Each structure stands twice: as C-alpha cells, then as structure tokens.
Amino acid sequence: MNLSGQENDRLLAALRGLLAAKNLVSTAEIAERIAATDRASPAQGAAMVARAWTDAAFRARLLADGARAAEEFGIMMRGAPPLGVLENVPGLHHLVVCTLCSCYPRAVLGYPPFWYKSVAYRARAVRDPRGVLAEWGTTLPEGTRIRVVDSTADYRWMVLPRRPDGTEGWDEAALAALVREGDMVGVTQPRLP
Amino acid sequence: MSEFAPTVFPAGARVRVRLDWPEQRGPAHIRTPHYVRGREGTVLRPLGRFANPEDLAFAREAAILPLYHVRFEQRALWPEATEGDEVVVEIFGPWLETA
Amino acid sequence: MPEEDAARPRAHHDLGGVAQYLCEPVDQSAHSLTDFDREVDALRQVLGQKGIMTVDELRRGIEAIPEAEYLRLGYYQRWLRSITAILLEKGVVGEAELAAALAVEQ
Q1: Domain count of the fold of chain C
Q2: A58, A134, C16, C26: which could form a disulfide with A126 (CB 3.0–4.6 Å)?
Q3: Structural domain containing residue C51
Q4: Which residues in chain C touch residue B91, judged by CB atoms under 8 angstroms apart?
Q5: What is the pLDDT at residue A1?
C-alpha cells in the first residue's frame, strides 16, 4: 500500500468503521481517549518540578518513585509505565532520547514534541549531545558531565532540572511558570525571563 | 532467549552486552540498541522485572525478565565523544554477561 | 554503506549514533497535531487497553515498514500502517472486509 494523506484518512475511517461494527472500538471510546490524552501537558511536569524545588520531602519521593509522586498531583498513572526522574545537579546534566522509537513520559508531559520524534534527534542526542544542546543555545558550566538516557524499555524518564539562581523566595506557581517542556527532556535549562 | 536462567547483576557490576544480531536471522523486535552490542558497561541499578518485549511483539507468552540501567562511557562507544560523558540504557538480563 | 554500518548490521529504525544523520540539524519548529494524528494515537491506546494489540506489536509493525517508506511517512502514518498490518495479521479484521470498507470510503 502506498497511501497519500487523503488515503490515510480513508484507511483510518475504514478501520474505525470495521472496529465499531465488530463492537471492538467505539467512536465514544476514541473521543474519550483523545480528551484524556489532551489533558496531559508540560504544565503538569512543571508543577511537579516546582514542588520538588520547594519541598525537600516531595523531591525525595519524586526521585524514589516518579509515578507515585505524580499521583499526588492527581495524574492518573495506573496502567502507565514506571516514571524515573533524573536529577540534574552541579557537575551532571541529563538528556533523554529514545533512539528506537519515541518513548516519552506522556502521562506527565503530554504528547512528545515533533523534534523528539525526528530522525536527527534520535540519531544525534546519544552521540553528539553537546552539539544538540548547542543548537538549543544551552551551555553548561565547564566540567559538567552529560549523561544521555536512551529510553529503550519499560521506564519513561523525566529530567528534574536545576532551580535557576535568583529565584529565592518565589512561590510554586511562579517557579512552575519558568519550567518548559525542553527543560524536562534536558535540551534546555530553566532560566529567568 | 525466554528460557534463559537470568544471572542477577548488582549495582556496580561490570557487564558486556552480547554481540548478537537476531534481526539478521528473521522477524524480530529488539530493544537493545545496536550501538551498545558487544560493549562493556556498568550496572547503575536493577530496574525491576518486566515482560520480554521480544515476545510481546509477536503476541507470544512473554517471559518476565530482569531489566537493568547500564551506564556506558561515551568514549567507549564513539571515539570523538567528550571524556566523562555517558550513555545509560535499559537492557534486559539475557542480553548481559559478566565482563 | 559506511564501513561502521557494515560491521554492525543494525535495523533501520535503530538510529542511535548513525553517522549519516550526524550533520542533520534538529528541526525544532512546533508542529501541532492534526485530528488524524490524535485519532490514530487514541485508537492505538484503546486497542492496547482492550488487549487487542500491544505497544510492542505496534513497534514491530512500524519496524517492518521498508526503510524508504519509514523515512517518507509521517509519524502517525507509520502507526496507522502498523496497526492495519497487525490487525490483519491477527485476523481482527479481514483483507476482504477492509477492501470493501475502503471502497465505501472512496
């Protein structure tokens, strides 16, 4: 089969029709799933990061078991893969990639961004992480090691970035607003606006 | 591979990833990336036990296997890498042997 | 085929460190998902929840797409291609009924 965009729409409609007629997958079930998936977004991960920056006990729980910590935020983790949280500390920076497909901590960050799924990112992040970070304008303090985490199996990985200097006394909401999608993958670091 | 009796590797164990290309022998679904096969690394920590994706991919009854987070020096994989940089990969027990 | 690839006969989806892409910049532009993308994504999730196909079967089906097609197709087009192949393989849907349903959608 060699399908154009329109043909893909037809194939999807045909499959959905057959699966509905067989009482296997209904239109309502698809709509429900889309709504549930759309609810996940980087704002959830950012809220977890901000809590970890301001609450040492939560930070410890997050690092020990990311999925259980996410549930404290009302994020539904049952049926989702285990969530590992990688803490950036002075001297060590993490970068997450999936070289085999596109494994991503969707439950806490939402759909993976387009670049994360691209051939160039998948090929390069693991071998040329410094070149990739440079494309994002990310510079690390001298002497910082990079640990690339290739998400190959059953875990999903999220980076706990370093809290930027100059944010002492900020509340959780203000801190969460600093944290972007790329910070939790490791291509960028939170910075003051 | 599903009948393999797994060795248990503790954190810190030196391991070598088997140099094997099952995808050359027929339909296969392999989660061990090509670039670590035949390479030596260090177990960061065991991650638990999970159903073997090599079986799940064919709807076969899946063995429950130990999964490890294994750290490789990037220099050991690619000569141009920056000294000290690392790659960490999730690898199932049957792919690992003591180095 | 570059020498390093000849010595390490990787599958084409196994992209980590592959030399031919090392000089390719990462396209950082935002791409919003289409209705098609969301529907395929949701369909796969529901099929998984119901035990009709696993995520590993999805991946195997994607990996079975020949390399030129794999690189040409959009992300969720690969998914749909794989879902269709796996459902046909498992007999969840039949070739003839799919052909008939496609004709109706014409």
Answers
A1: 1
A2: C16
A3: 35-106
A4: none
A5: 46
With a CB cutoff of 8 Å and minimum separation 6, the contacts of A23 are none
Write down the pLDDT at residue A78.
87
Q: Chain A residues with CB inside 8 Å of C38's CB?
A: 34, 37-38
- Nearest CB among C9, C14, C56 relative to B33 is that of C14
Q: Which of A26, A41, A101, A118 is catalytic?
A: A101
Q: How many domains does chain A have?
A: 2
C10 occurs within a structural domain: no
User: Whose structure tokens read 């998914």?
Assistant: C79
In this structure, are A160 and A94 located in the same domain?
yes
CA separation (Å) from C105 to A5, A101, C37, C94, C95? 14, 31, 19, 17, 15
The torsion angles phi and psi of B64, rounded to 5 degrees, stand at -95, 120
Chain C residues closer than 8 Å to B59 by CB = 53-54, 57, 90
Residue of C16, C42, C101 with shortest CB distance to A127: C16
In a domain, C20, yes or no: no
Q: Is B21 on the interface with C (CB under 8 A)?
A: yes
Please report whether residue A175 resides in a domain.
yes
Q: Please give the structure tokens belonging to residue C45.
A: 């999730």
Rounded to the nearest 10 degrees, the angle between the axes of helix C75-89 and helix C35-49 is: 40
pLDDT in single tens digits along all 99 residues of chain B:
445 555 689 999 999 999 999 999 999 999 999 999 999 999 999 999 999 999 999 999 999 999 999 999 999 999 999 999 999 999 999 999 999
A33: contact with B, CB 8 A cutoff: no
Domains in chain B, please, with CATH? 14-98 (2.30.30.50)
Q: Which residues in A177-189 are b (16+ Cβ under 10 Å) and which e? A: ebbbbbbbbbbbb
What pLDDT was estimated at residue B1?
Answer: 46
What's the pTM value of the predicted model, to 2 decimals?
A: 0.95
- Is A94 in the same domain as A134? yes
Q: What's C41's DSSP letter?
A: H
- Residue A112 counted as domain residue: yes
